[in-house]
Structures
1.
Amino acid sequence: MPEPTPTPPADTPPPGSIRLAPGVRIDEGKLTFVTSRSSGPGGQNVNKRETKVELRVSIDDIPLKPDARARLKRLAGSRLTDEGILQITAEDTRSQRRNRELTVARLAELVAKALTRPARRVRTKPTKGSIRRRLDEKTRRGQRKAERSRNKGRGHDE
């Protein structure tokens, strides 16, 4: 009797897709990788191998809710083109494969940040002491200005 094929864990992405965050997967075909020669030291390989990797993906191809998509656009900053293409580069290592993995990891990190809602600021009431100090300072400032107007016309050389 043949053994049953093992089922992959529930969070394993299906073949051909990449897991960016819990519940967010993108088809590998939607990602475009462009390679070029990397800057910096590289010894004998520097002018021969294209190890710099640039990942390009349309922000609309990433399955996100509208509020998360807006946060992603804000987080992307200058990495987002006018056409809505997100560009992430890596030239950290001498390995093209590793730089490719780094770009995907950076995309996943960006998506994970976009998924987390910013904590709402809890307004706090000023303390009685701080209110009293502010009002005392205002009173002193007003008295100082009133004193100046009373002394108007009286010079310092008298």
2.
Amino acid sequence: MRRGRTWTKLKEKLWRSEMAAQEEFFADTCAAFIEYCPTFMVLTGIPKIPYSPSAGPADVLCFKHYNAEEVLMGRKMEDWLRFSVKYYTFHDRDMAPEGSTLEESNRNLDEITDLALQLQSQTGVRVLWVTCNLFAHPRYMNGAATNPDCHVLAYAGAQVKKGLDTAQKLGAQNFVFWGGREGFLSIHNTDVAAELKHMANFFKMAVSKCAHDYGIHSKSEYREKIGLKCQFLIEPKPKEPCKHQFGMLGSVDSNTGSPDLGWDTDQFPMDIRNATLVMKTIIEQGGLQPGGLNFDAKVRRESTDLEDLFIAHIGAMDTFARGLRNAVRIIEDGIIPGMVKDRYSSFSHGIGQKMEEGSASLEEMEVRILTLVF
């Protein structure tokens, strides 16, 4: 037991040394960046990217398909394709390093978001979403909202509260719940029902403010209390654990990976067929507002030219523009929507209609089958 405690203390000491080094590097990097490029001179030589549909293959710094002002189905392309080039997103611990206490972490976040607020007013770039990093710190090794230790869950709640306050401060359009460590490793030591209940209550606490401490048993929305006007989003992971999870989209993480690999490689999306299906779904649900298409992607390690970053964004934006045009044609020609409607036509009359309305009974189902003449 003594040896185990010694090893635990040693690991904690090593971890704190690593965190201190990261914080020092973060501070030095930010200071150097602000001093070196106060007017973004690092981008000197990159012109404004024009729309040039007739450009040749050697012209890479132009859009061949993305035309922001083009109107499709009553809406500008830039409104259908809410790219995060005009927005930025962040985890709280990406924006400012975690301190040794919650108070210190909150002060760090306040200091850097004061600067972010100034830069937003100077550039017009806005916050698409804010989220809290509830997975990187060792305290979250067994989850945050599903952690078996109430103290850890309470810490996560305090962190989310500060995240909501930060979202309000910066005018974020969305707040994301990303449960990177939620779940379990072994069913033998896990009370699944309890953990799911705790997670549900965690979401409710984030949305609503209970006033039981003051003898009041009513609830008022916390976002209304602090003046936060945003949409709440939950970030799922495809195939983690289910292939198909939700029937709705609030915002899209617009990156891709190699189909023959089993991990996320954060590549810019270049598959027109996939983009077509994505945009068809987005159109059919009326758009993504206030969400957007967030390029959570990066150029490859072998890239050494600043232009590569622009070429990658241009290619991905053109891919979605082509996908949007394809999706509009699919919807407007009516062939596939008509096929889908015909496929479910048996629910438009008789027992099918009653089933659709929720008024059919099992007895009626049995009678139909017993009396049906083939």
3.
Amino acid sequence: MPQRRSNSWGVNTEPAGAWKADRTTAIGVAMTSLVHALRCGQILLMDGAMGTELMKAGLTPGSSSESWNLSKPDAVRRVHAEYVTHGARCLLANTLLARPTAHDSSTTPKLDWARVIKAGVELARRECPPGGFVLGSVGPPVTTGRPSACDEVAGIRWQLTQLQEAGVDGILLETQTSLAALGEVLADSKPTVPLLLSFAFRTTSSGPMLADLNEGPEEAAKFAERWSGAVIALGVNCGREMSLKAVCDVLRRYRRTTKLPLFARPNAGTPERRGDAWCYPVAPQDIADATCEMVNAGATMLGGCCGTTPLHIAAMLEVLGRRASAWSPSI
């Protein structure tokens, strides 16, 4: 067996196969590896946005980015590859809304969503670096224009099962805005891989709040604690009018409430209309300038959400590299 290699953050950087040789169950492998990566002192670097990157390749706004796992897999694979080249060690599969209940059947072509999920996981796995992770992405319930919220709860549970069967290392339930809705999803779920929860807040006069204006970061953290048998990390992503300063505020309020590992995947700002295009105002250097503050606020995993690019991830890596010898890609 090859000797263990650690960088100066203290994280194990040996190939994934060596990590898993002495584990006996799939959930034990994934749980042990991910928890170690999140708790050992290294900042685990995730990827950035998928949808806005695919739009640059021709994806029509409002259409299903997940369908490209089957129709244009090379485009999806190239996005993953670019993020890895620029430093990402944790990739999100292109599966955010990969379930039939999240789409209007009258406007979305009929798809084999199980195949979409399997292909999405395989594309991410193909580009994942040694010792890295592939997480399944699951978006919040979509209820507008749907028969009922119950359909989406069942749809998300189905999606969780499909992702587990596809072989992800964990599942990120992201951009969540309702504790009640997420609680319904988790109530009868039986995950066989670790879960990560990430909430999307809106900026209000009282600070960051979820869709229910009585629910702030503290309530989200307490919710995650109640599910801590399956949930291994708590994060913040996306959001409405959420500055990088507001993201750091959420992290600090999380940390005062929970001991779970924390992570942040901020947007590249709120998009602005410029001519025929939407532009995101937060540049890679802006993300770089906020990286240390996010880490000091408690984050042990960082990445990006809407509008972020491989250059934003590279900017984070450059800052982290000044503090320690993080995993070094070929740029």
4.
Amino acid sequence: MIAFVFVSRIVGLLLGIFAFSTTTSHSTTSIIHVHCPIENSMVQININVSFPYNIASNGFKTDPCNPKSADSHPYGSYAFQSIGFVVLAILSSLVCLLGLIVYICFDEAYRENYKLPNADFLLSVVIVCLWIVCTTVWADGFVKIKHYIDLQTLRVNGHLEGCKDLPHKCITVSHGKFASIYASLVNCH
């Protein structure tokens, strides 16, 4: 029994570290090209996406071909969701590390005192419940990030009004790379 608990703490520690590192180290850019027919030029819009995922901090003109047009920003700040996920990953790692220390250094006390395994179990249940909630909230935030930086969504929401009409040709060059975020969410479910 103690071997299973010991191994589960090691796995929990590694997964917590992995979730923390993949979420905080992720950075990508969504790139949109707008062809301006009057000037016969190309304007590039970069939407940077990185921890803490405040995509509203990216600014551009609603009509990139008209420098006098209004400023616009994609919708949303997902800092709360991502920071909550990272804080729980750190907390989970610390709980697993503490559990490993108890199992290694206080093995006799753990085996003799029935309250320690019960407390350990209750703490594990609380961490698992929080982990499920935080992962779900972060996954929802991640889906919204991908939605709100999409060219079609930017057009419909009026953030790129210059791309609604045809002489401007707007194309997405890169949606950004989100593999590490997918990996952090998959490892948690």
